[in-house]
Structures are given as structure tokens and as C-alpha cells.
Hints:
By secondary structure, the chain is mainly α. It has 14 helices and no strands. Helix 3 (about 40-45) packs antiparallel against helix 4, helix 5 (about 75-80) runs parallel beside helix 7 (about 105-115) and helix 9 packs parallel to helix 11 (about 175-180). It is elongated. The termini are far apart. The model has no long low-confidence stretch (mean pLDDT about 95).
Amino acid sequence: MAQESTIYDLAYHGKSTAVKNRISDDDSLKTKVDSNGRMLLHWAALGGHNDLVKDLLSMGVPVDPEDDTNMTPLILAASAGRDKVVETLINEGANVNLQTFEGHSALQYAASKNWLTICEKLIESGANINITDKRGATPLHRAASKGNIEVLKLLLEQGSRLNIDTKDVYGNTALHLACEEDRQQEARLLVTYGANIEIENKDRKTPLDIATPSLVRQLKAIKENTSSE
């Protein structure tokens, strides 16, 4: 005999009517947490069910509840690429700069997963573009290392607000990571926007020390051209 779905399963799969029927029978369910410390709002947000998210919020459910790893509905929605849910949560007052226990923010997840529209919405809504996780990585580190060129461009276009040469706990800048992964287009873009090619990490290596010979030539040429302008 099939086991009955929990109300959290129903929320994740967008079964709005069933969720609301159960809440009408027991109002406490709207804020009750499961074994992961998650409310229905977490699961509806993760599943991308914007109408259910709106319904839950209209019932007075808090917009920023944290689960047992400090994940909020916004962080989950941003990580899963749920554009409409992200917009709804932000419009309802969600804090765009909350972080998980590992220090990961909604923008860090979106930058890592290459969700450009979500990154745009978060930045427009005041997300800290220089926010760091427990390893010192910023959204720029994530976009550069993953090869997410459009997100990288978006971050670089923030101009002086962006700390382009921030080091992580290993002393690596975003340019170090782009060179390490041989992300040539990303590395060229970083240097074009002023990333330092001579900064050393904790192993006393510069981005050029870990780049391929071909990339070294390209980056030096960009640096020379920008210096002569």
C-alpha cells in the first residue's frame, strides 16, 4: 500500500489545494517544521510553485524562516533557478543577504548555477556583490571558476562597487581560479576589467604562474594594451 504523501511533499510538488485543505483542518501546519527544520514555504519555494508561495505568505507565514542549515526559502529558490518565486519573496521583504551556516547567500548560489536573471534581480534588490562564504569565496570567484561568463560580466559591470581582487582563504582571486580552470574568456575579461595578474596566493603563485602558456600570452597582451591607453 502506497504511503500517503506528507504535506511537505505536497508543497514541493505544488499540490496547492491539498496543502490548503490540510491547513484548514490544522492551522498550525502552515508554520510547522519537518525533520530538516523546513516549513511548507521552503518546499514550495524550492519546487518553484509561486502561487502556493503567495498563498502561504498571505496566511502570515514568515518570509525568511531558516532550516537546520540556515537555508531560507529565497536561498533555496535562487539555487534552484526559480525566478518568479525569487521575485515574489523579494517583493514580500525577504532579506537578500542572509547566509547558510557555510556562508552561502542567494547570490552566491545563483552565480554558481549561472542563473543570470536571478543574479540581476538580487543585485538590483541590494544583494552584497562582495559577500564571502566561510572559505572566503565571493560570487565573482564562483562565476569565474564555473565559467559563467554572463554572470561574470554582470558582476564586473558593477564597477567600483566590486572588489575584483578579493582573496579566498587560499589566497586565490577570481583570476587565479579562472586561470587554474583554463577559463580563457573569463580570465581575459577579468584582466580587461583590471584584475591584478601579479597578486600571489598562499602558495606564492600569481595567476600567470598557473595559467597555460597561451593564456599567459593573452593576459600579458591585454595588460600591456590597457596600460598604454
